[in-house]
Amino acid sequence: MKILIYNWVQFDNPFMQGGGVTLYLRNVIEELLRRDDVEVYFLSSGDKYGMFGRKPAIRQTKNAYDTPRLRTFTLWNSPVKAPAHDAFHAIDTWLDDPVTARLIADFARQHGPFDAFHIHNLEGISGKVLSLEKSDTGIRRLFYTIHNYMPVCPQIELLYDGRLPCTDYHDGARCVGCIAHNNRMKDLIRFHRMGGWIKGRGLAGHPLGGFLFDIYAGTRAYAKAARNLARDILGGLRNGFRNWHFRPRQDVGTRHGWEPDSSVKPPRILPLDLPEDRAEGYRRWRETNGAALRDNADGVFAVSDLARDSAMRFLPEGSRVETLTLPIDIEVSPERRAKIRAERQPSEAGVTLSFIGYDIPSKGLPFLIDALSEIDDPWYRENVNLLIVARFGEHRARQLRQLEHRFRNLRIVPAYARNQLLGLSQQIDLNVVPSIWWETFNQVTVELARLGVPSLVSSNVGAKQTLPHPETFVFRAGDAADFRARLDPLVRDAALRQSFFDAELAMPSVAGHVDELMRRYGGGV
After folding, report:
1. Which of 22, 156, 417, 438 is 20 to 30 A removed from 167 (C-alpha atoms)?
2. Is there a single domain that holds both residue 93 and residue 6?
Protein backbone atom coordinates (compact mmCIF):
# COMPACT_ATOMS: atom_id res chain seq x y z
CA MET A 1 0.00 0.00 0.00
CA LYS A 2 1.26 3.46 -0.93
CA ILE A 3 0.25 6.36 1.33
CA LEU A 4 0.74 10.13 1.01
CA ILE A 5 0.56 12.05 4.30
CA TYR A 6 0.41 15.86 4.64
CA ASN A 7 1.24 18.05 7.62
CA TRP A 8 2.64 21.58 7.51
CA VAL A 9 5.86 20.57 9.29
CA GLN A 10 7.88 17.40 8.75
CA PHE A 11 7.07 14.75 11.35
CA ASP A 12 10.71 14.29 12.49
CA ASN A 13 11.23 18.01 13.08
CA PRO A 14 14.05 18.31 15.65
CA PHE A 15 12.24 21.08 17.54
CA MET A 16 8.86 19.28 17.61
CA GLN A 17 7.19 22.10 15.71
CA GLY A 18 3.57 21.21 15.22
CA GLY A 19 3.31 19.84 18.76
CA GLY A 20 0.99 16.91 19.32
CA VAL A 21 0.19 16.36 15.64
CA THR A 22 3.89 15.99 14.85
CA LEU A 23 4.31 13.46 17.66
CA TYR A 24 1.22 11.54 16.56
CA LEU A 25 2.42 11.33 12.96
CA ARG A 26 5.83 10.13 14.06
CA ASN A 27 4.17 7.32 16.01
CA VAL A 28 1.88 6.39 13.11
CA ILE A 29 4.63 6.46 10.48
CA GLU A 30 6.98 4.36 12.60
CA GLU A 31 4.20 1.77 12.94
CA LEU A 32 3.45 1.89 9.21
CA LEU A 33 7.12 1.24 8.46
CA ARG A 34 7.01 -1.91 10.58
CA ARG A 35 4.68 -3.34 7.94
CA ASP A 36 6.55 -4.65 4.92
CA ASP A 37 3.80 -3.90 2.42
CA VAL A 38 3.55 -0.15 3.15
CA GLU A 39 5.32 2.72 1.40
CA VAL A 40 5.00 6.21 2.90
CA TYR A 41 5.42 9.58 1.20
CA PHE A 42 5.33 12.61 3.48
CA LEU A 43 4.73 16.19 2.29
CA SER A 44 5.00 19.45 4.26
CA SER A 45 4.52 23.08 3.21
CA GLY A 46 4.40 26.68 4.39
CA ASP A 47 7.60 26.68 6.45
CA LYS A 48 10.43 26.83 3.89
CA TYR A 49 11.18 29.93 1.80
CA GLY A 50 14.19 30.83 -0.33
CA MET A 51 15.75 34.28 -0.23
CA PHE A 52 16.53 34.34 -3.94
CA GLY A 53 14.90 31.32 -5.61
CA ARG A 54 11.26 32.17 -4.94
CA LYS A 55 9.34 29.95 -7.34
CA PRO A 56 7.04 27.49 -5.53
CA ALA A 57 8.26 23.92 -6.01
CA ILE A 58 8.21 20.57 -4.23
CA ARG A 59 11.65 19.26 -3.27
CA GLN A 60 12.75 16.05 -1.60
CA THR A 61 14.12 16.39 1.94
CA LYS A 62 16.25 14.32 4.27
CA ASN A 63 14.71 12.50 7.22
CA ALA A 64 15.83 10.63 10.32
CA TYR A 65 14.88 7.18 9.00
CA ASP A 66 17.10 4.94 6.91
CA THR A 67 14.57 3.13 4.75
CA PRO A 68 13.67 3.34 1.06
CA ARG A 69 10.00 2.92 1.99
CA LEU A 70 9.85 6.45 3.41
CA ARG A 71 10.37 9.53 1.26
CA THR A 72 9.87 13.06 2.55
CA PHE A 73 9.23 16.26 0.59
CA THR A 74 8.44 19.90 1.25
CA LEU A 75 6.72 22.54 -0.84
CA TRP A 76 9.09 25.51 -0.91
CA ASN A 77 7.83 29.10 -1.27
CA SER A 78 4.18 28.26 -0.67
CA PRO A 79 1.86 31.24 -1.28
CA VAL A 80 0.10 30.14 1.94
CA LYS A 81 2.31 30.55 5.00
CA ALA A 82 2.09 28.27 8.02
CA PRO A 83 1.13 28.13 10.82
CA ALA A 84 -2.53 29.06 10.67
CA HIS A 85 -2.49 32.49 12.32
CA ASP A 86 0.05 33.73 9.76
CA ALA A 87 -2.55 33.22 7.01
CA PHE A 88 -5.63 34.32 8.98
CA HIS A 89 -5.82 37.79 7.42
CA ALA A 90 -5.19 36.43 3.91
CA ILE A 91 -8.25 34.22 3.98
CA ASP A 92 -9.05 34.51 0.25
CA THR A 93 -5.52 33.43 -0.71
CA TRP A 94 -5.67 30.61 1.82
CA LEU A 95 -8.92 29.32 0.35
CA ASP A 96 -8.45 29.97 -3.36
CA ASP A 97 -4.71 29.81 -4.10
CA PRO A 98 -4.36 27.50 -7.12
CA VAL A 99 -0.59 27.00 -6.90
CA THR A 100 -0.40 24.61 -3.95
CA ALA A 101 -3.28 22.50 -5.27
CA ARG A 102 -1.69 22.30 -8.73
CA LEU A 103 1.73 21.34 -7.37
CA ILE A 104 0.28 18.63 -5.13
CA ALA A 105 -1.79 17.26 -8.01
CA ASP A 106 1.33 17.13 -10.21
CA PHE A 107 3.26 15.49 -7.37
CA ALA A 108 0.60 12.80 -6.99
CA ARG A 109 0.67 12.08 -10.73
CA GLN A 110 4.46 11.86 -10.71
CA HIS A 111 4.90 9.67 -7.62
CA GLY A 112 1.56 7.86 -7.45
CA PRO A 113 -0.78 6.24 -7.69
CA PHE A 114 -1.51 6.52 -3.98
CA ASP A 115 -3.97 4.28 -2.20
CA ALA A 116 -4.61 7.06 0.31
CA PHE A 117 -3.87 10.76 0.67
CA HIS A 118 -4.29 11.68 4.34
CA ILE A 119 -4.37 15.42 5.14
CA HIS A 120 -3.81 16.44 8.75
CA ASN A 121 -4.36 20.19 8.43
CA LEU A 122 -4.62 22.98 5.87
CA GLU A 123 -1.73 25.06 7.17
CA GLY A 124 0.65 25.85 4.32
CA ILE A 125 -1.75 24.80 1.54
CA SER A 126 -4.99 26.16 0.13
CA GLY A 127 -8.45 24.80 0.74
CA LYS A 128 -8.54 23.79 -2.91
CA VAL A 129 -6.47 20.72 -2.00
CA LEU A 130 -9.59 19.23 -0.39
CA SER A 131 -11.27 19.26 -3.81
CA LEU A 132 -8.52 17.53 -5.79
CA GLU A 133 -9.85 15.37 -8.60
CA LYS A 134 -8.88 11.94 -7.33
CA SER A 135 -9.37 10.10 -10.61
CA ASP A 136 -7.20 12.63 -12.43
CA THR A 137 -4.33 12.58 -9.93
CA GLY A 138 -3.94 8.90 -9.10
CA ILE A 139 -5.31 9.33 -5.58
CA ARG A 140 -7.72 6.50 -4.80
CA ARG A 141 -9.01 7.78 -1.46
CA LEU A 142 -8.71 11.09 0.38
CA PHE A 143 -8.93 11.44 4.17
CA TYR A 144 -8.84 14.32 6.65
CA THR A 145 -8.26 14.23 10.41
CA ILE A 146 -9.65 16.96 12.65
CA HIS A 147 -6.79 17.63 15.08
CA ASN A 148 -8.15 21.16 15.43
CA TYR A 149 -11.05 23.01 13.80
CA MET A 150 -9.17 24.48 10.86
CA PRO A 151 -11.57 23.50 8.02
CA VAL A 152 -14.36 25.50 9.69
CA CYS A 153 -12.29 27.96 11.75
CA PRO A 154 -9.06 29.53 10.44
CA GLN A 155 -8.27 30.60 14.02
CA ILE A 156 -8.28 26.77 14.53
CA GLU A 157 -9.64 26.69 18.11
CA LEU A 158 -13.25 27.88 17.72
CA LEU A 159 -12.34 30.35 20.47
CA TYR A 160 -13.49 33.89 19.80
CA ASP A 161 -10.96 36.59 20.73
CA GLY A 162 -9.05 34.04 22.82
CA ARG A 163 -11.86 34.24 25.40
CA LEU A 164 -15.09 32.49 24.44
CA PRO A 165 -15.92 29.19 22.73
CA CYS A 166 -17.50 30.12 19.40
CA THR A 167 -21.05 28.90 18.87
CA ASP A 168 -22.09 31.23 16.05
CA TYR A 169 -19.69 32.87 13.63
CA HIS A 170 -22.37 35.23 12.25
CA ASP A 171 -21.69 34.36 8.62
CA GLY A 172 -18.06 35.38 9.02
CA ALA A 173 -18.67 38.80 10.59
CA ARG A 174 -17.54 37.53 13.99
CA CYS A 175 -14.35 36.07 12.50
CA VAL A 176 -13.18 39.49 11.27
CA GLY A 177 -12.53 40.65 14.84
CA CYS A 178 -11.38 37.34 16.29
CA ILE A 179 -7.60 37.78 16.16
CA ALA A 180 -6.04 40.97 17.48
CA HIS A 181 -2.98 41.14 15.24
CA ASN A 182 -3.26 42.36 11.67
CA ASN A 183 -0.06 40.85 10.28
CA ARG A 184 0.19 40.78 6.50
CA MET A 185 1.07 37.29 5.29
CA LYS A 186 3.31 38.67 2.55
CA ASP A 187 5.38 40.59 5.11
CA LEU A 188 5.67 37.49 7.29
CA ILE A 189 6.90 35.50 4.31
CA ARG A 190 9.54 38.15 3.56
CA PHE A 191 10.91 37.99 7.10
CA HIS A 192 10.77 34.18 7.00
CA ARG A 193 12.90 34.25 3.85
CA MET A 194 15.53 36.31 5.65
CA GLY A 195 15.40 34.09 8.72
CA GLY A 196 15.82 31.01 6.54
CA TRP A 197 18.76 32.57 4.71
CA ILE A 198 20.48 33.32 8.03
CA LYS A 199 19.80 29.81 9.31
CA GLY A 200 21.16 28.31 6.09
CA ARG A 201 24.51 29.95 6.82
CA GLY A 202 24.72 28.64 10.36
CA LEU A 203 24.01 32.04 11.89
CA ALA A 204 20.68 31.33 13.61
CA GLY A 205 21.13 32.40 17.25
CA HIS A 206 24.54 33.89 16.45
CA PRO A 207 25.08 37.62 17.23
CA LEU A 208 25.98 38.22 13.58
CA GLY A 209 22.74 36.56 12.51
CA GLY A 210 20.77 38.82 14.84
CA PHE A 211 22.62 41.84 13.47
CA LEU A 212 21.83 40.90 9.85
CA PHE A 213 18.16 40.30 10.66
CA ASP A 214 17.91 43.67 12.44
CA ILE A 215 19.57 45.38 9.46
CA TYR A 216 17.02 43.77 7.15
CA ALA A 217 14.10 44.76 9.38
CA GLY A 218 15.43 48.30 9.75
CA THR A 219 15.94 48.70 6.01
CA ARG A 220 12.35 47.64 5.41
CA ALA A 221 11.17 50.14 8.04
CA TYR A 222 13.11 52.97 6.34
CA ALA A 223 11.70 51.93 2.96
CA LYS A 224 8.18 52.01 4.41
CA ALA A 225 8.80 55.49 5.86
CA ALA A 226 10.01 56.70 2.45
CA ARG A 227 6.92 55.26 0.74
CA ASN A 228 4.66 56.95 3.28
CA LEU A 229 6.38 60.31 2.72
CA ALA A 230 6.11 59.94 -1.06
CA ARG A 231 2.41 59.13 -0.69
CA ASP A 232 1.89 62.23 1.48
CA ILE A 233 3.72 64.42 -1.05
CA LEU A 234 1.52 63.13 -3.87
CA GLY A 235 -1.55 63.78 -1.74
CA GLY A 236 -0.31 67.28 -1.00
CA LEU A 237 0.14 67.99 -4.71
CA ARG A 238 -3.47 67.00 -5.29
CA ASN A 239 -4.99 69.07 -2.46
CA GLY A 240 -2.63 72.05 -2.40
CA PHE A 241 -0.79 70.77 0.67
CA ARG A 242 -3.86 71.50 2.77
CA ASN A 243 -2.62 69.59 5.81
CA TRP A 244 1.03 70.60 5.61
CA HIS A 245 0.85 73.72 7.81
CA PHE A 246 2.97 73.72 10.95
CA ARG A 247 1.14 73.03 14.20
CA PRO A 248 1.36 75.19 17.35
CA ARG A 249 4.53 74.55 19.28
CA GLN A 250 2.65 74.74 22.55
CA ASP A 251 -0.93 73.77 23.34
CA VAL A 252 -3.16 76.68 24.38
CA GLY A 253 -5.18 76.16 27.57
CA THR A 254 -8.97 76.05 27.61
CA ARG A 255 -11.63 76.23 30.32
CA HIS A 256 -13.60 73.17 29.06
CA GLY A 257 -17.00 74.67 29.75
CA TRP A 258 -20.04 72.54 28.96
CA GLU A 259 -22.16 75.25 27.29
CA PRO A 260 -21.42 75.72 23.57
CA ASP A 261 -21.08 79.08 21.90
CA SER A 262 -22.19 79.85 18.36
CA SER A 263 -18.93 78.60 16.82
CA VAL A 264 -19.22 75.07 18.21
CA LYS A 265 -20.25 72.40 15.72
CA PRO A 266 -21.87 69.10 16.71
CA PRO A 267 -19.54 66.08 16.88
CA ARG A 268 -18.95 64.24 13.63
CA ILE A 269 -20.77 60.95 13.21
CA LEU A 270 -18.79 58.46 11.14
CA PRO A 271 -19.36 54.94 9.88
CA LEU A 272 -17.16 52.16 11.22
CA ASP A 273 -13.87 52.58 9.38
CA LEU A 274 -12.28 49.29 8.31
CA PRO A 275 -9.96 48.83 5.34
CA GLU A 276 -12.14 46.02 3.99
CA ASP A 277 -14.95 43.72 5.00
CA ARG A 278 -13.58 40.18 4.98
CA ALA A 279 -16.67 38.50 6.45
CA GLU A 280 -17.53 36.99 3.08
CA GLY A 281 -14.12 35.33 2.91
CA TYR A 282 -14.54 33.66 6.28
CA ARG A 283 -18.05 32.52 5.39
CA ARG A 284 -16.76 30.99 2.17
CA TRP A 285 -13.91 29.34 4.08
CA ARG A 286 -16.27 27.39 6.28
CA GLU A 287 -18.84 26.58 3.62
CA THR A 288 -16.40 25.64 0.84
CA ASN A 289 -14.18 23.47 3.03
CA GLY A 290 -17.19 21.83 4.64
CA ALA A 291 -18.70 20.97 1.26
CA ALA A 292 -15.38 19.59 0.00
CA LEU A 293 -15.01 17.33 3.03
CA ARG A 294 -18.57 16.10 2.65
CA ASP A 295 -18.45 15.55 -1.10
CA ASN A 296 -14.84 14.61 -1.87
CA ALA A 297 -13.31 13.01 1.24
CA ASP A 298 -13.62 9.26 1.71
CA GLY A 299 -13.31 9.66 5.45
CA VAL A 300 -13.22 12.50 7.97
CA PHE A 301 -11.86 11.55 11.38
CA ALA A 302 -11.87 13.38 14.70
CA VAL A 303 -9.44 12.63 17.51
CA SER A 304 -12.17 12.63 20.19
CA ASP A 305 -15.94 12.71 20.55
CA LEU A 306 -15.70 16.32 21.71
CA ALA A 307 -13.77 17.28 18.56
CA ARG A 308 -16.30 15.46 16.40
CA ASP A 309 -19.33 17.08 18.04
CA SER A 310 -17.78 20.57 18.00
CA ALA A 311 -16.85 20.33 14.31
CA MET A 312 -20.24 18.92 13.31
CA ARG A 313 -21.96 22.08 14.57
CA PHE A 314 -20.28 24.01 11.75
CA LEU A 315 -20.17 21.41 8.96
CA PRO A 316 -22.92 21.29 6.31
CA GLU A 317 -25.87 18.94 6.43
CA GLY A 318 -24.99 15.45 5.29
CA SER A 319 -21.45 15.56 6.73
CA ARG A 320 -20.06 12.48 8.47
CA VAL A 321 -17.24 12.55 11.01
CA GLU A 322 -15.94 9.41 12.72
CA THR A 323 -14.04 9.40 16.02
CA LEU A 324 -10.67 7.65 15.88
CA THR A 325 -9.18 8.25 19.32
CA LEU A 326 -5.50 9.12 19.32
CA PRO A 327 -3.00 6.53 20.57
CA ILE A 328 0.19 7.31 22.42
CA ASP A 329 3.53 5.57 22.13
CA ILE A 330 4.00 5.30 25.91
CA GLU A 331 2.52 1.84 26.39
CA VAL A 332 3.27 0.91 30.00
CA SER A 333 1.79 -2.01 31.93
CA PRO A 334 0.19 -1.35 35.34
CA GLU A 335 3.07 -3.25 36.94
CA ARG A 336 5.75 -1.14 35.30
CA ARG A 337 3.80 2.03 36.07
CA ALA A 338 3.67 1.08 39.75
CA LYS A 339 7.41 0.40 39.70
CA ILE A 340 8.10 3.79 38.08
CA ARG A 341 6.15 5.58 40.78
CA ALA A 342 7.73 3.52 43.55
CA GLU A 343 11.17 4.62 42.39
CA ARG A 344 10.36 8.32 42.34
CA GLN A 345 12.41 10.71 44.40
CA PRO A 346 10.55 14.02 44.23
CA SER A 347 12.71 17.07 44.76
CA GLU A 348 10.17 18.55 47.17
CA ALA A 349 8.14 17.20 50.08
CA GLY A 350 4.38 17.59 50.03
CA VAL A 351 2.00 17.37 47.06
CA THR A 352 3.02 18.89 43.73
CA LEU A 353 0.49 20.28 41.26
CA SER A 354 1.59 20.94 37.69
CA PHE A 355 0.51 22.84 34.61
CA ILE A 356 2.16 21.70 31.37
CA GLY A 357 1.35 23.61 28.21
CA TYR A 358 1.62 26.78 26.17
CA ASP A 359 1.13 30.20 27.70
CA ILE A 360 -1.84 31.04 25.50
CA PRO A 361 -5.34 31.90 26.76
CA SER A 362 -6.91 28.80 25.20
CA LYS A 363 -4.73 26.50 27.32
CA GLY A 364 -6.07 28.13 30.47
CA LEU A 365 -2.98 29.33 32.34
CA PRO A 366 -4.53 32.77 33.07
CA PHE A 367 -7.67 31.01 34.34
CA LEU A 368 -5.56 28.73 36.53
CA ILE A 369 -3.65 31.64 38.06
CA ASP A 370 -6.88 33.45 38.92
CA ALA A 371 -8.51 30.31 40.33
CA LEU A 372 -5.52 29.36 42.49
CA SER A 373 -5.03 32.91 43.75
CA GLU A 374 -8.37 32.63 45.58
CA ILE A 375 -7.06 29.77 47.73
CA ASP A 376 -6.01 31.19 51.09
CA ASP A 377 -5.42 28.11 53.23
CA PRO A 378 -2.50 27.47 55.62
CA TRP A 379 -2.54 23.77 54.67
CA TYR A 380 -1.76 24.66 51.03
CA ARG A 381 1.03 27.00 52.12
CA GLU A 382 2.59 24.20 54.15
CA ASN A 383 1.96 21.18 51.90
CA VAL A 384 1.28 22.03 48.24
CA ASN A 385 3.93 22.85 45.63
CA LEU A 386 3.15 24.38 42.25
CA LEU A 387 5.15 23.47 39.13
CA ILE A 388 4.56 25.49 35.94
CA VAL A 389 6.02 23.90 32.80
CA ALA A 390 5.76 26.63 30.16
CA ARG A 391 7.59 29.48 28.48
CA PHE A 392 6.13 32.86 29.35
CA GLY A 393 7.02 36.53 29.43
CA GLU A 394 7.53 39.03 32.20
CA HIS A 395 3.83 39.94 32.41
CA ARG A 396 2.80 36.35 33.15
CA ALA A 397 5.70 36.01 35.59
CA ARG A 398 4.38 39.00 37.55
CA GLN A 399 0.94 37.37 37.65
CA LEU A 400 2.42 34.10 38.90
CA ARG A 401 4.33 35.89 41.65
CA GLN A 402 1.14 36.23 43.73
CA LEU A 403 0.92 32.42 44.00
CA GLU A 404 4.22 32.26 45.89
CA HIS A 405 2.28 33.40 48.95
CA ARG A 406 -0.47 30.80 48.45
CA PHE A 407 1.66 27.65 48.06
CA ARG A 408 4.62 25.97 49.69
CA ASN A 409 6.72 26.95 46.70
CA LEU A 410 6.46 27.85 43.03
CA ARG A 411 8.90 26.40 40.49
CA ILE A 412 9.25 26.88 36.74
CA VAL A 413 10.38 24.54 33.97
CA PRO A 414 10.59 26.63 30.77
CA ALA A 415 10.94 23.63 28.43
CA TYR A 416 11.65 19.92 28.33
CA ALA A 417 12.67 17.35 25.75
CA ARG A 418 10.47 14.32 25.31
CA ASN A 419 13.10 12.03 26.77
CA GLN A 420 12.89 14.15 29.93
CA LEU A 421 9.17 13.47 30.38
CA LEU A 422 9.71 10.48 32.66
CA GLY A 423 11.92 12.49 35.00
CA LEU A 424 9.44 15.36 34.94
CA SER A 425 6.56 13.04 35.78
CA GLN A 426 8.42 11.87 38.89
CA GLN A 427 8.10 15.38 40.33
CA ILE A 428 4.30 15.57 39.93
CA ASP A 429 1.42 14.24 42.04
CA LEU A 430 -1.49 15.82 40.14
CA ASN A 431 -1.50 17.56 36.77
CA VAL A 432 -4.08 20.22 35.89
CA VAL A 433 -5.41 20.76 32.34
CA PRO A 434 -7.60 23.91 32.53
CA SER A 435 -8.26 24.44 28.79
CA ILE A 436 -11.05 26.86 27.88
CA TRP A 437 -11.22 26.00 24.16
CA TRP A 438 -12.86 22.78 23.01
CA GLU A 439 -9.47 21.07 23.10
CA THR A 440 -9.64 18.22 20.66
CA PHE A 441 -7.59 15.82 22.80
CA ASN A 442 -4.57 16.78 25.03
CA GLN A 443 -1.78 14.27 24.75
CA VAL A 444 -0.06 15.38 27.95
CA THR A 445 -2.98 13.99 29.94
CA VAL A 446 -2.54 10.48 28.57
CA GLU A 447 1.27 10.62 28.50
CA LEU A 448 1.39 11.43 32.20
CA ALA A 449 -1.32 8.87 32.96
CA ARG A 450 0.76 6.12 31.38
CA LEU A 451 3.61 7.18 33.69
CA GLY A 452 1.43 7.15 36.81
CA VAL A 453 0.37 10.81 37.11
CA PRO A 454 -3.38 11.60 37.32
CA SER A 455 -4.82 14.77 35.78
CA LEU A 456 -7.71 17.03 36.71
CA VAL A 457 -9.06 18.26 33.37
CA SER A 458 -11.66 20.77 32.26
CA SER A 459 -14.87 19.59 30.61
CA ASN A 460 -13.57 21.14 27.38
CA VAL A 461 -10.74 18.60 27.05
CA GLY A 462 -11.32 15.80 24.55
CA ALA A 463 -9.13 13.34 26.45
CA LYS A 464 -11.74 13.25 29.23
CA GLN A 465 -13.44 10.39 27.37
CA THR A 466 -10.46 8.15 28.14
CA LEU A 467 -10.73 8.59 31.93
CA PRO A 468 -12.26 5.89 34.15
CA HIS A 469 -13.70 8.36 36.72
CA PRO A 470 -14.68 11.62 34.98
CA GLU A 471 -16.99 12.47 37.88
CA THR A 472 -13.87 12.93 40.04
CA PHE A 473 -11.29 14.17 37.55
CA VAL A 474 -13.30 16.58 35.33
CA PHE A 475 -14.42 20.10 36.32
CA ARG A 476 -16.68 22.54 34.48
CA ALA A 477 -14.57 24.56 32.04
CA GLY A 478 -14.09 28.17 33.09
CA ASP A 479 -15.77 27.63 36.50
CA ALA A 480 -13.19 28.53 39.14
CA ALA A 481 -15.40 27.50 42.06
CA ASP A 482 -16.07 24.06 40.59
CA PHE A 483 -12.37 23.68 39.82
CA ARG A 484 -11.41 24.39 43.43
CA ALA A 485 -14.15 22.07 44.71
CA ARG A 486 -12.75 19.18 42.60
CA LEU A 487 -9.14 20.06 43.34
CA ASP A 488 -9.28 20.19 47.13
CA PRO A 489 -10.15 16.53 47.89
CA LEU A 490 -7.64 15.34 45.29
CA VAL A 491 -4.85 17.38 46.83
CA ARG A 492 -5.60 16.11 50.33
CA ASP A 493 -6.29 12.43 49.55
CA ALA A 494 -3.63 10.28 47.84
CA ALA A 495 -6.02 7.31 47.63
CA LEU A 496 -8.51 9.43 45.70
CA ARG A 497 -5.77 10.46 43.28
CA GLN A 498 -4.83 6.81 42.86
CA SER A 499 -8.43 5.97 41.85
CA PHE A 500 -7.55 7.55 38.51
CA PHE A 501 -5.93 4.18 37.75
CA ASP A 502 -8.83 1.91 38.74
CA ALA A 503 -8.99 1.02 35.05
CA GLU A 504 -6.77 1.57 32.04
CA LEU A 505 -7.39 4.58 29.80
CA ALA A 506 -9.99 3.92 27.11
CA MET A 507 -7.72 4.40 24.12
CA PRO A 508 -6.11 2.22 21.45
CA SER A 509 -2.53 1.12 21.06
CA VAL A 510 -0.53 2.64 18.22
CA ALA A 511 -0.67 -0.68 16.36
CA GLY A 512 -4.42 -0.98 16.87
CA HIS A 513 -4.97 2.58 15.68
CA VAL A 514 -2.91 1.99 12.54
CA ASP A 515 -4.89 -1.21 11.90
CA GLU A 516 -8.05 0.94 11.83
CA LEU A 517 -6.42 3.45 9.48
CA MET A 518 -5.26 0.69 7.13
CA ARG A 519 -8.77 -0.75 6.94
CA ARG A 520 -10.07 2.65 5.86
CA TYR A 521 -7.18 3.29 3.48
CA GLY A 522 -8.01 0.00 1.80
CA GLY A 523 -11.71 0.77 1.54
CA GLY A 524 -12.73 -1.84 4.09
CA VAL A 525 -14.86 0.63 6.09
Report:
1. 22
2. yes
